[in-house]
Specification:
The structure holds 2 protein chains of 2 kinds. By secondary structure, chain A is of the alpha+beta class. Chain A contains 19 helices and 12 strands. Chain A folds into 2 domains: about 220 residues, 2-Layer Sandwich (Cytochrome Bc1 Complex, Chain A, domain 1), CATH 3.30.830.10; about 180 residues, 2-Layer Sandwich (Cytochrome Bc1 Complex, Chain A, domain 1), CATH 3.30.830.10. Chain B is about 45% helix and about 20% strand. Classes of the chains: A alpha+beta, B alpha+beta. The interface between A and B is large, with 80 and 84 residues.
Chain lengths: ~475, ~425
């Protein structure tokens, strides 16, 4: 492959949640299709968007039940989200799987750092079969103990397996290293020490404290009639009771900025290459410069011809790919340059990445560079909101991060309005220059001396439990 | 009510140099794409130049006559476009995604590199480093790639599916500019390429641009056919690979036919029966009931030449390898003996229909699938016939293909684990 698309750019999807109407000046305007939004008396927010291109319906739900509520039981949000499918009041786990598999319907329940989610896709003719199942999964899960024990065993094995791949685990080390004791530092997957201690009651308690119609949204996009769908949802979800106690806003606490350069070196004995992230704190999702930052990052590390990829891959052949990304959350975020290289070229690659970051601060953007980035960001935008599933996901993201129509309508204007002067300000304000943070996974014996060149090194063994 | 795509919506034309175009208009977003399928992959290589198809894929971005080094990507991105490419055992595919306003630029860029690629020795050297890093990062991050390489090398002893797509490390370090030039002349002729364009375009406009930019590139001689045929396997083969892993990884491959073979659809259904969803035979038995594996999946993909039907298992902890392996055979034997139920068959047919809808949901899905059917099955119309082809498959067909191909003598078993000395 020319580039590992899902690796290099997956991190960008978070930041590219911004969306656009009129993304193209010369084409028929790209518009987010019309949708309807309402709130049920119990507080559940509902979005409906009709899309009739294929006879399929996509559903996306979002709930305030992410890993930030794990407390000391790291991994609990994730297991609770999978646990929704262990059976419900009227459907056993096997029955759910057989019914949905038979009609080719997909169903995922998952947790992320801040929220939990459900996504499902099915043929529109099967709506009467699928909706009652989805309703029970969200509202009446029973958390079967035997199924939980089986899943726990798989999760414990997966935790070890994931450590075989630096790419799979580096972000967990990164978040822990940057956020420290803040709830954003908690790893979604948990560790052997935490997951092995859960009981089924922990899942039940987590569910009853955090799954509630209030603070949650469900978005449905696809081939249906809105009036009919609204009636169905009112019947199905109207009786879902909001839980009594309000959630504490655990993520609101400020994340302290790093006071010095620090390096976390994670030793992997059999590593043939070094995988690393360098960066620091980034931005919140509601940052007013969100779109401008995306354009600037496109030049620096957000596309194939970006300065990072050009220098580290194209000019020097040190790596297969290098990129940079902002990962914004509701209350904080991080920024990181990311790449990997053979053990023996570790030093040259880290040095080059730092040089490129320096050059970002020293050199401004030419008009041509800026024009190119603007065209690129606008041109690559519409395919992100092409399918019913993508649109349903977009609606729940709008709900979660609270971006509104004005933000949507101003996307193109914000891209076009970025001047060379403003891009300079964006770089100064949001791209770290010093007190950089490093997470480096590789063979310590060969790269420890190199790591020490950049600052204080803390070492961990990749085989050690947790992050 | 449904603006659903039909075979007749795909318009085709062929330039005088033999380059075939498939065009599908779709106004849902103001974007378009262009997928170029070259019928060359690692099956066209030989020892000494293994990995060259894939390396060539990289070199196609490194400069031609009009657009020099770096200019292909710079020009495309300046115009709002992005690209990628991939190489398989069978084909090399170049993908461009762009706002439709950039279409003429895309034609100009493609025409330049197809007609007059320049192979700059400096770019060859730096690209070797990129590809060695690509090879290494895949081995570093996935035990499957290491095990899969060993399995193919064992199951194929004469046919070129024996070696990996990325190639041998020492071939990557040693092929020459002359090897690359010869490869370009042999395989990058317009008549060895199928182009698919989908999106907010007009067929007439695509045709006009194709004539203007691509029609004058001379036709090349037909590349020599791959004459190596894998002899029938006459006994079980086993291969072990050492890598430090928490639990063993296991693959089992059975020789099965190419995409155009009559058994393709029944085998594809069988693959879904085994592993699609938690109610599938293998997930339900190995992962859920017996808890011998943490995950299981199967793969049966389209291929020019007969290839492998593969099973992949990640072992659960403290499980004997033989128990896991035998549990797979037990499920295979059940189907060989008792076949599958009508309900199961209907389930897979329903799933196949949903897959078909998914392929039509995006312009990228449309181009990729239309091109794949044209190249592998000989006609893009087969994509639209697929739901009907799957409908025709009977439970007896599935039982028959299970008996025909899933024989002990026809299988290769690969195990990757920490301790290989016991």
């Amino acid at each position: 492959m020319k580039t590992i698309t899902n690796y290099i750019f997956s991190a960008l999807t978070l930041i590219i949640l911004s969306l656009s109407v009129n993304a193209q000046t010369k084409q028929a305007a790209f518009k987010v299709p019309a949708y309807e939004k309402f709130t049920l008396p119990n507080g559940l927010t509902v979005y409906l968007m009709e899309q009739h291109e294929v006879p399929v319906i996509s559903i996306s739900a979002i709930l305030p039940a992410g890993a930030i509520y794990d407390g000391t039981r790291s991994g609990l949000a994730s297991l609770t989200a999978s646990g929704l499918q262990y059976g419900t009041k009227n459907y056993s786990k096997t029955k759910i799987e057989e019914e949905l598999d038979f009609i080719g319907a997909s169903l995922n329940t998952y947790a992320s750092k801040e929220s939990a989610g459900l996504s499902s896709k099915f043929a529109s003719k099967d709506i009467d079969k699928v909706l009652p199942i989805l309703k029970e999964i969200l509202v009446d899960p029973i958390f079967d103990k035997d199924e939980f024990e089986k899943e726990r065993k798989r999760v414990l094995t997966n935790l070890d397996q994931a450590k075989q791949s630096p790419r799979n685990v580096i972000n967990s080390y990164w978040d822990k290293f940057i956020y420290g004791s803040h709830v954003y530092g908690n790893s979604l997957t948990g560790s052997q020490a935490t997951v092995s201690k859960f009981s089924i009651d922990d899942l039940k308690n987590f569910y009853s404290s955090n799954y509630s119609p209030k603070g949650s949204a469900i978005a449905i996009a696809g081939d249906f009639n809105s009036k009919d769908m609204r009636a169905r949802l009112e019947t199905l979800f109207g009786s879902w009771k909001a839980n009594g106690s309000a959630q504490a806003n655990l993520a609101a606490q400020a994340v302290p900025a790093p006071s010095s350069t620090r390096i976390l070196l994670v030793n992997k004995e059999d590593a043939r290459e070094t995988t690393f992230l360098i960066g620091g704190l980034g931005i919140r999702r509601d940052n007013p410069d969100f779109v401008a930052i995306e354009v600037v990052n496109t030049v620096f590390g957000g596309r194939f011809t970006s300065w990072l990829n050009d220098e580290l891959r194209v000019n020097s052949g040190l790596t297969y790919g290098a990129n940079s990304r902002f990962t914004p959350l509701k209350n904080s975020g991080t920024f990181a340059m990311s790449t990997f290289t053979a053990n023996k070229t570790t030093e040259a690659t880290i040095d080059k990445a730092l040089q490129v970051l320096d050059s970002l601060h020293e050199k401004g953007f030419s008009d041509k560079t800026l024009a190119s980035a603007k065209n690129y960001v606008k041109g690559q935008f519409p395919p992100r909101y092409e399918t019913a599933g993508q649109l349903a996901g977009l609606l729940t993201q709008m709900f979660w991060y609270g971006f509104d129509e004005s933000f949507i309508n101003n996307f193109e204007k914000n891209v076009d309005g970025l001047t060379a002067q403003k891009s300079k300000e964006i770089i100064n304000k949001y791209f770290p220059k010093d007190k950089l943070q490093f997470v480096v996974i590789g063979k310590s014996e060969e790269i420890r001396k190199i790591a020490e060149k950049y600052g204080t090194v803390v070492t961990k063994e990749i085989k050690a439990d947790g992050f | 009510m449904f603006a659903q795509t039909k075979a007749d919506d795909v318009k085709t034309f062929t330039l005088k140099n033999g380059m075939k175009f498939l065009v599908l208009e779709d106004i849902s977003i103001p974007n378009a794409n262009m997928y170029l399928f070259y019928k060359v992959g690692s099956r066209n290589e030989y020892p000494g130049i293994t990995g060259l198809s894939h390396f060539f894929e990289h070199m196609m971005f490194n400069g031609a006559k009009k657009y020099g080094p770096k200019m292909f990507d710079q020009t495309m991105e300046f115009n709002g476009g992005a690209n990628n490419a991939y190489t398989t055992q069978n084909v090399t595919v170049y993908t461009n995604w762009f706002p439709v306003s950039a279409m003429e630029t895309i034609f100009d860029l493609e025409a330049d590199r197809i007609s007059s690629l320049s192979i700059d020795p400096k770019m060859v050297e730096s690209e070797r480093g990129v590809v060695l890093s690509e090879r290494s990062t895949s081995l570093e991050n996935s035990p499957w790639s290491m095990l899969g390489d060993a399995l193919n090398a064992t199951a194929f002893q004469e046919h070129p599916y024996h070696w990996t797509v990325i190639g041998y490390e020492n071939d990557i370090k040693n092929w020459t500019k002359e090897d690359l030039e010869k490869y370009f002349k042999t395989y990058y002729a317009p008549n060895n390429c199928v182009v698919v364009v989908s999106g907010n375009v007009k067929v007439d406009n695509v045709k006009q641009l194709a004539e203007k930019y691509l029609a004058n590139i001379p036709k090349g001689p037909e590349p020599k056919a791959v004459h190596l045929v894998e002899p029938p396997q006459t006994g079980e083969r086993r291969v072990t690979v050492q890598k430090e892993v928490p639990t063993p990884y296991m693959m089992i491959g059975y020789h099965t036919p190419e995409a155009k073979h009559k058994d393709y659809y029944a085998l594809s259904i069988l693959s879904s029966i085994f592993s699609n969803g938690n109610s599938s035979r293998l997930y339900s038995s190995l992962v859920d009931k017996k808890q011998l594996a943490t995950s299981v999946f199967t793969d049966f993909s389209e291929s020019f030449d007969p290839n492998l039907f593969q099973f992949y298992m990640e072992s659960a902890e403290n499980v004997k390898e033989a128990d896991l392996e035998n549990a797979v055979y037990e499920e295979i034997e059940k189907i060989k003996k008792d076949g599958i139920s009508a309900q199961e068959l209907q389930k897979i047919k329903n799933q196949k229909l949903m897959e078909f809808y998914s392929q039509l949901e995006t312009i990228n899905g449309k181009s990729n699938n239309i091109g794949t059917y044209e190249v592998f099955f000989g006609d893009y119309r087969k994509m639209f016939d697929a739901p009907a082809e799957y409908s025709k498959v009977t439970a007896a067909d599935v039982k028959r293909v299970a008996n025909e191909y899933f024989k002990k003598s026809n299988r290769t078993v690969g195990i990757l684990k920490t301790n290989v000395e016991d």
